[in-house]
Amino acid sequence: MNDDAFKYAERLVPRSYIDLARQARRSYEQQIRQIIEHRKLPEQPLDENIIEQWLNEIAQMDSNNFEGNIGVGEREGRIYSSLVARRHYLFSHGIGRSGDINAIQPKAAGSSLLNKLTNELVLDAIHILGLRTITHALVIPMATGMTMTLCLLTLKKQRPNSRYVLWSRIDQKSCFKSILAANLEPIIIEQIENNNYLQTNINEFEKQIKKLNQNEICCIISTTSCFAPRTIDNIQYISNLCQIYSIPHLINNAYGLQSTKIIHEIEQTKRSNGRIDYIVQSTDKNFLVPVGGSIVLTYDKELFDKLSHIYPGRASINPTIDIFITLLSMGKKGLIDLIQKRKNLFNIFYEKLLQWTKDNDECILSSKQFSPISIAISLKHISNEHLTELGSMLFTRRISGARVVKLGTKQTIDSYEFINYGAHSSNIQYSYLTVAAAIGIEENDIEIFMKKFDSIYQKLRRNENSDD
Amino acid sequence: MNDDAFKYAERLVPRSYIDLARQARRSYEQQIRQIIEHRKLPEQPLDENIIEQWLNEIAQMDSNNFEGNIGVGEREGRIYSSLVARRHYLFSHGIGRSGDINAIQPKAAGSSLLNKLTNELVLDAIHILGLRTITHALVIPMATGMTMTLCLLTLKKQRPNSRYVLWSRIDQKSCFKSILAANLEPIIIEQIENNNYLQTNINEFEKQIKKLNQNEICCIISTTSCFAPRTIDNIQYISNLCQIYSIPHLINNAYGLQSTKIIHEIEQTKRSNGRIDYIVQSTDKNFLVPVGGSIVLTYDKELFDKLSHIYPGRASINPTIDIFITLLSMGKKGLIDLIQKRKNLFNIFYEKLLQWTKDNDECILSSKQFSPISIAISLKHISNEHLTELGSMLFTRRISGARVVKLGTKQTIDSYEFINYGAHSSNIQYSYLTVAAAIGIEENDIEIFMKKFDSIYQKLRRNENSDD
Amino acid sequence: MNDDAFKYAERLVPRSYIDLARQARRSYEQQIRQIIEHRKLPEQPLDENIIEQWLNEIAQMDSNNFEGNIGVGEREGRIYSSLVARRHYLFSHGIGRSGDINAIQPKAAGSSLLNKLTNELVLDAIHILGLRTITHALVIPMATGMTMTLCLLTLKKQRPNSRYVLWSRIDQKSCFKSILAANLEPIIIEQIENNNYLQTNINEFEKQIKKLNQNEICCIISTTSCFAPRTIDNIQYISNLCQIYSIPHLINNAYGLQSTKIIHEIEQTKRSNGRIDYIVQSTDKNFLVPVGGSIVLTYDKELFDKLSHIYPGRASINPTIDIFITLLSMGKKGLIDLIQKRKNLFNIFYEKLLQWTKDNDECILSSKQFSPISIAISLKHISNEHLTELGSMLFTRRISGARVVKLGTKQTIDSYEFINYGAHSSNIQYSYLTVAAAIGIEENDIEIFMKKFDSIYQKLRRNENSDD
Amino acid sequence: MNDDAFKYAERLVPRSYIDLARQARRSYEQQIRQIIEHRKLPEQPLDENIIEQWLNEIAQMDSNNFEGNIGVGEREGRIYSSLVARRHYLFSHGIGRSGDINAIQPKAAGSSLLNKLTNELVLDAIHILGLRTITHALVIPMATGMTMTLCLLTLKKQRPNSRYVLWSRIDQKSCFKSILAANLEPIIIEQIENNNYLQTNINEFEKQIKKLNQNEICCIISTTSCFAPRTIDNIQYISNLCQIYSIPHLINNAYGLQSTKIIHEIEQTKRSNGRIDYIVQSTDKNFLVPVGGSIVLTYDKELFDKLSHIYPGRASINPTIDIFITLLSMGKKGLIDLIQKRKNLFNIFYEKLLQWTKDNDECILSSKQFSPISIAISLKHISNEHLTELGSMLFTRRISGARVVKLGTKQTIDSYEFINYGAHSSNIQYSYLTVAAAIGIEENDIEIFMKKFDSIYQKLRRNENSDD
């Protein structure tokens, strides 16, 4: 309804009431205008219906939704099913053009606008979270693993003679496989143990760089967010090496945006002039949307453009829509609250587990400081055969995400062999259980977990004894 | 409502009425059961509400939707916004696992089931469309360009010493860039002109194979669906070469599933023992869903598995959901009707344009037989400066998809230079306009296009004369 | 997005593309503006997403949807469930005020606007359907029966000494019961048979008026839409009587808007100066929305106001929303097409049944001219016990709406006894089956009905013979 | 998906994962089964998606949603617009039959089931709220005013010679007009003042009964929920009179279910053998759904049946759907919490206003005990002309629901004149402001109200002084 329509509405409803409505509408239009103008999250959450209406408006800027549009091309944004059309808010053209994932589509001004704006809002969210020096953010409609591969292909293109990736071992298959998918060769740097937890083997990194021709190294991959007992990689040191030896540095920050500690480490690294090329993180793990997108951050326009340009063809706008809705639903306030709440619950979870280990002659196998999201506890008193049972008992009691890691598990990925797979290191002392206080967790989850886990543990431990 | 619930319902509503409802419900349950059992499209379209309800049921098989589920991992399928949750039918876990895009997720039986089942339904749809010998279909949640890159990376992994891709020129940037993104080197084989249209330069292909070490050739890329005057590549000949010289063959069949002619060519090629490794097609261009997915077809389990395995990590389930909904909404009947309708409308469009060229001393620049989707017409009487105007006049009159190709356009992609970019060949005689009768087009679109285009053309042509 | 927002969008997407979007948006805003300005249906259907977006905009004019609204009353339009909120597009205040169902609510400018506008659009639809002289239309959120009662209460209020309603028998319980609910006394005027069908007993009407004190007659109720063999009441004659004797005339036109014949009869009646006070029709039966609303038409502002004023308190806006959506989804063109299609299908159905009666020695028991929606056929050769079976066999074979009427059925409503209930007359000769070609019926329905019915009929008729 | 479908799913996804899903599904099916079996609210809220899925299942029990249903009647539940169909979950047949609003529809087993079940769930909710002796609850798809009329028509039918309604004055137009709509004559019993608030004039009631022939009295209407300074009617006394003189008693309990005090009064009245025939309450005001429905409660099957039977024809199922969704969304726990929260906020609001009156030399004009929802405060220091301004200033500052009542307002409804309309009494001493802490109010609303109101008040009061 434009101003004229409002005027004619006054013939049906008295002007004073229409005026109040007009004023209410204006205040919502102001909010929208401000978001487009300043490209910053609103302070407070936006109502769902406002977000939805705005999305509909933006979608109507795409040619497939123009009244009377005639399509004689091969890709006209037609949608067969109205269910599908609805769930995509009539967005059909995706993002990007053949040349660039961040390019404008002439046919799809709305999709292009949504894409550009969302990248800017994500950048603002990143700043709010504490990475204040980041200058570019790009939502990529592929999950972190494949996006890591894309970053590696981009780096490789700049270093055509390189073959190797120095990789600080992290037992997430997708991170390791992202190297293989790019047809690069991983050099695995094992974690070393320190005081019950694992940390980056910094000496080995330097040794490997010196051993290999540094031009043959495509990049170093460090990982910040990981499961205890592994800790945040020593990215300050690694990025220093990268700086000194002119080797690109790719940070696998999969779910690190939710941790103020990890954010702080990255920010410090940058401020102390360490080299960071790309930082990759998941949209689902950090912003509570369905799996399917990731965010690449850089400090450099050229790196940003190179990544955009390498992407061949169009891509889904879906993760962009999800992030757009979610960030506006949170507002700055909601985002900060969520982060704070997670931190508090991590502390609560840690204290509960610490007490539990004391009560049961087990021990915490992680650094509270350097594993700010997950916590590992030893399972000394449970034998290997019962460990499998423990895992499956948790699963059938609807506990998801708790991982039992058994000493001695072997795994081969392509031709690469790993000892103690899952534990990030060949040298660990105990089998253990690892759990996380990730964003979105509720205190109730922690309480029920403690109860259910303890009951299973006690039962199995009693069995151990009776087995004797 | 289970059987018990129905029984208790009889206390509120007489049994005979409940019985009729029970029977109706059973007939819909049978349909669902049959689809899961036989993994074939239903003959007739399924109602939207049945599809939606089924999707909801499947989503409830994922652990994040279990009542009382406790998540203590880092990725628990939590969704912040209820808008986002709704539009994804509560699916949150994506598809695949770290190791394989087609692997089962223990946490997400529903997503896994949907993924497996949809791949099977797509395979059935492919059979219905005429590719009866295909044995494996995989929906990939990336558009065709990036999926081509993934196929290239997979092939390259098997042929670690290869560097080159023999590429039959097609002026779609995303196809060309998919080679560059994989860090491979394209060898461009220009189209040759024949009788006003362009065709595969088969001699040059053989020449290049002989010139290069065949082990250094990663694969040949042929393209079937393209804009006139370029025609379907001579894939029978190319696949023969691939067979003889043991070179992988990747077919860029972006929007070729909609053409019975193209389908026929591929099927014939396979039946005559030509080599085809992967066939890549878009979900949006063939099945009328939003941009974001593609389908890879193979005739070989090993190739299928290799492709699944190379994908690092999880991926979006979105294109899978869209295809699932769309195929069930169509049913076998709807799919066949759609294809038949397109074919008829192509013939109508061709006849109209043929008549128009006769009336205006222009000519058709395409083979009706070998360009079964698009049609090119010469624009001899419009000068270059007016050609630009023509394009923009069409655009502002809401004609989308019609392309004006001007003689002499140059384009550089990375370090590669193209003459007459857009025309697929350095040697064309006329500037021209190309349009398509793609799936989903309506007769009305063709009529309005003819009227609007003719009016613009006549106006510009008069201007030409008056400019003299 | 207001003009400023569009301007800022130009910083993200080039102006020329934004301009095209702006233009597309403007054309949709014009449509909306025109509908509010002229209060007429659009010529062509409006897209669902446009309708939905408009509804959302209107709802935001209600105070419960204002940002920062503070409610300290007892009725603040709060909605507990977001599912409920969504399905009502956030409309919560209903329509009307304590004093008048058509009054403006200061708190709810949007609801009030929607109500006023929809009543105007309904009036336009009524004019399009052929009732060109109607001046007032009111959507009432109660189905026809209860709305008839409301009309009767309104008339009774004007005629406080009246007690009787002269009622041309129609065997729809809700029509008869609407009299009883108003605590008035029905005088039943039986139909008379003429040439195999039933028609208004006009002599009896006049006789009764003369017999009773005319001031004691609250009104006459005639019925236009009914099941054959009953025909449209002779409303020209009845309204003449009403004019002469100053008795209000209430027309039960439940599903008559779909018939051009019935429309014509009413229009003729009015043009020949017959008296018609209120015409009541169903929203669901005429406009294909769910049960729950009705439309009252009058030719007189005072009668319209009296009806509005009698309604005590607020009422649901739901039927208004449904009608608003439906009329805009149809557009003028869609509405006319629907009516025309029904007429054609009625003729087809009639011809098929006529042929069938000839083939089976049965006969048509209705006037093609005066029963323009339904058709009755004799069931001479089926005995009474088998008639019941016939009905239930149709039902279990998912034929709904076909009615088997058995000679001799008795029914008592309150203290009133009816012979041959269902047949509208004490004097009919045969048991029969009656079916309708109502709005929304498809040719396919007719074909399948003929097949299924014939098969059941033949089976039962064979049984008759074998029973002998 | 039935059991067979699950079995075939095991061919696609390992059995152990399917088993977990099966188990999760079973636990949700149990919940549904229990609700149907016991017809009681679940203890805990049900998830929205479970509710929605269940609604879809129930809707599929209606014949219009049967696959292959053939409709040859005049009312086949067809829906033109898919938007409309969706928002009604495909329910189209409404509730009731011609004869009875609570009757089963053979065509619509699902709608019938939903109707019956919802009435039972409402009854359970009523018991939870404290009216434990109520035996029948009926959701009527009309708002309270019209439903009061329906009750009056039902009572009048049983007492054909009655003409009067004894009515304890309450200045809600819809209550008064419900009497006029039923063509009955109100006898107005003014409130009397007592200690700054108003209460039932019990002597006048008895006087009027004695004065009139008691058979001419159709019923007495008392009101429980009202705006201060009026208090809950003395229903114990009134129902006693009704018992003694055999006069029906209709309680207007519009928004009384939210108050434990009002509930207690009704329960006590019943337990002390007072006569209560029907209790009418709004669905929107008590259960936070959109306007459009009401609930009638009785203690007597015959009264319940009479009310059901009088309703002529079908009716909307909408309020039933809304209540069904809302009650399941609340669960028993949510409902109790809501009531408790309201009570607490009322106390907070009262204390704040009390303090405010002390600070400003105004006074509370209501009984905390007998006006348990709303509070009135004097506005001694604001002159009449400024009072109007106060109201409109509140309105434009988005305070809704606060009512300014000016001494001396006159109002005529039909031929009845009221002095001090809005104040429920001819004799009040001050103009005043009345506000409510109704269900759904938030503490934040109270705080912002206090701030905004005080600021307006002070400004106007300063103006008063400067006017001098």
TrEMBL record, chains A, B, C, D:
Major localisation: cytoplasm
Listed InterPro entries: PyrdxlP-dep_Trfase, PyrdxlP-dep_Trfase_major, Sec-tRNA_Se_transferase, SepSecS/SepCysS
GO annotation, cellular component aspect: cytoplasm
EC number: 2.9.1.2
Keywords: Cytoplasm, Protein biosynthesis, Pyridoxal phosphate, RNA-binding, Selenium, Transferase, tRNA-binding
Statement: the UniProt record of this protein carries the keyword Nuclease: no
Pfam families, sorted: SepSecS
Sites where the protein binds tRNA: 271, 397, 462
Residues reported in the UniProt entry to bind pyridoxal 5'-phosphate: 75
Cofactor(s) this protein cannot do without: pyridoxal 5'-phosphate
Known partners and oligomeric status: Homotetramer formed by a catalytic dimer and a non-catalytic dimer serving as a binding platform that orients tRNASec for catalysis. Each tetramer binds the CCA ends of two tRNAs which point to the active sites of the catalytic dimer.
Family according to the record: Belongs to the SepSecS family.
Protein name: O-phosphoseryl-tRNA(Sec) selenium transferase
